[in-house]
């Protein structure tokens, strides 16, 4: 059997619609070290405030801080969670983040696979 035919026989996975599956959000922040990123990831997962936390490879951030133009190498931390957990996750991050004024940005997920949405909901339930 060809790869194409095998692929055609795989059941299609459904994509969630807002009315059926949990509402998902993605929260972004940045830190200066892998240790800081790992600490935030562990804490969010232990508190069940996130289903998944990804730590991206180094990025370069350019910004103005206290009147000075800065350029720093940072790591982006991407948090997958439920809309119902976002406020609690942001509060936890604000209290545990090493920066004085951390970037805490939340974006809604417009669509996700149903299985993934359910997994996020299960992973963040206490």
Can you give a write-up of this model?
This protein is an alpha+beta fold and 126 residues long. 33% of the residues lie in helices and 30% in strands. The protein has helices at residues 3-9, 34-46, 86-96, 114-123, and strands at 24-31, 52-55, 59-65, 68-82, 105-108. A hairpin with a 2-residue loop joins strand 3 and strand 4.
Any descriptors?
single chain, 126 residues, alpha+beta, disordered N terminus
Question: Summarize this, please?
Answer:
With 126 residues, this protein is of the alpha+beta class. It is 33% helix and 30% strand.
N-to-C CA distance:
45 Å
Outline type: elongated
- The low-confidence runs, each spanning 5 or more residues with pLDDT under 50, are 1-7
Please give the oligomerization state of what you see. single chain
Beta-strand level of the residues, as a percent range? 25-35%
Percent of residues in helices: 25-40%
Rounded Rg = 18 Å
Question: How many DSSP helices?
Answer: 4
Secondary-structure class: alpha+beta
Averaging pLDDT over every residue, what do you get?
89
């Amino acid at each position: 059997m060809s790869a194409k035919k095998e692929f055609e026989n795989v059941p299609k996975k459904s994509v969630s619609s807002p009315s059926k599956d949990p509402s998902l959000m993605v929260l972004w922040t940045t830190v200066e070290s892998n240790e800081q990123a790992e600490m935030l990831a562990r804490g969010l997962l232990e508190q069940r405030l996130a289903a998944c936390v990804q730590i991206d490879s180094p990025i370069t951030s350019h910004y103005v801080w206290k009147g000075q133009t800065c350029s720093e190498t940072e790591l982006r931390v991407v948090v997958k969670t439920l809309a119902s957990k976002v406020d609690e996750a942001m509060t936890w991050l604000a209290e545990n983040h090493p920066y004085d004024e951390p970037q805490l940005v939340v974006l809604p997920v417009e669509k996700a696979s149903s299985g993934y949405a359910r997994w996020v909901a299960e992973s963040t339930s206490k």
